Amino acid sequence: MNRLRQLNELGIDTVWRLRGPSVAVPGLAAAGAGMPAGADRVAPGAAAGAGAGAVAVLGEAALRGVTVPSGWDALEQGVAACNACGLCRSRNRAVPGRGDRSAALMIVGDAPDAEEDAEGEPFAGQSGRLLDNMLGAIGLARGAGAYVTNIVKCRPPAQRSPQADEFVQCAAWLQAQVDLVSPRLILVLGRSAAQGILGGEASVPLLRGQMHRWRDRPVLVSYHPTQLLHTPRDKAKAWEDLLRVRHELSRQPSDRR
Ligand code: URA
């Protein structure tokens, strides 16, 4: 599909310009800032209970535990066999993630849905097609410059969002993926994923447009493709966010703040 068609599919018929650099929301957890030393390689299952907002969920409590086997094969086998939380009981297949393993951009959604659970592939359904078009519009694809995963690797039952204690148990897998991929930028899609990673209870409209940090990496937040399917008028804002992604990826390391 050519870029114009991808843009049409995104509902974009306007030329958008980037907003200027912005600052983080005051009081919002700069997640990752409080990471304990030597906490990089840990496995799910050892975390204490999660509080509302899951602040530091992925930053601290979830980091205590057993060593995660290093390397992609071990990680994917570990995810497939993981029984650290109740989601393992209802899943058909765990969905570790897919894409370019040395991608500049890591995309993090919230949780697998029915299609993903059946296929073992993140964003396999209609929202995934929109995501692919969005990535294509900025010259990326899952296998070329982007790696796609979720904040939890197993499908929550009854189409509910993942819960904070599930983030906690699953956090180390995401951290191991970030360590392996070493992306230059993380794009977090949707409120559940954003709140799980960044903590707090801020909405996507409040979080987007600002550079956050997690695991000492820059993080942008945008709308979840499923939400864009329901609310197409937000596609223009999502496109604005994608342009920011493209801009950030095009900057030299020395240009970055
Ligand atoms: N929604 C997500 O956040 N992730 C998927 O993998 C599918 C739908």
Explain the overall architecture.
The chain has 257 residues and is an alpha/beta fold. The protein has one domain (46-251): Uracil-DNA glycosylase-like domain (Uracil-DNA Glycosylase, subunit E, 3-Layer(aba) Sandwich). The chain is built from ten helices and six strands, in the order αααββααβαβααββαα. The chain has a six-stranded mixed β-sheet with strand order 1-3-2-4-6-5, with helices on both faces. A hairpin with a 2-residue loop joins strand 5 and strand 6 (217-222). It starts with a helix and ends in a 7-residue tail after the last helix. The model is unreliable at 13-66 (pLDDT under 50). The structure holds uracil. Uracil (URA) binds at residues 109-113, 116, 122-123, 127, 150, 226.
The end-to-end distance, rounded to whole angstroms, is 35 Å
Number of DSSP-assigned strands: 6
Question: What is Rg?
Answer: 17 Å
Rounded mean pLDDT score: 80
The assigned CATH architecture is 3-Layer(aba) Sandwich
Q: Regarding CATH, which class?
A: Alpha Beta
Helix-strand string: HHHEEHHEHEHHEEHH
Cross-sheet strand order for the largest sheet: 1-3-2-4-6-5
- How many distinct helices? 10
SS strand fraction: 5-15%
Number of domains: 1
Write the layout of secondary structure elements.
Layout: H1 3-9, H2 72-81, H3 87-90, E1 98-99, E2 105-109, H4 114-119, H5 126-137, E3 146-150, H6 164-181, E4 185-189, H7 191-198, H8 204-207, E5 212-214, E6 217-222, H9 225-230, H10 235-250
Helix pairs in contact: 1-5
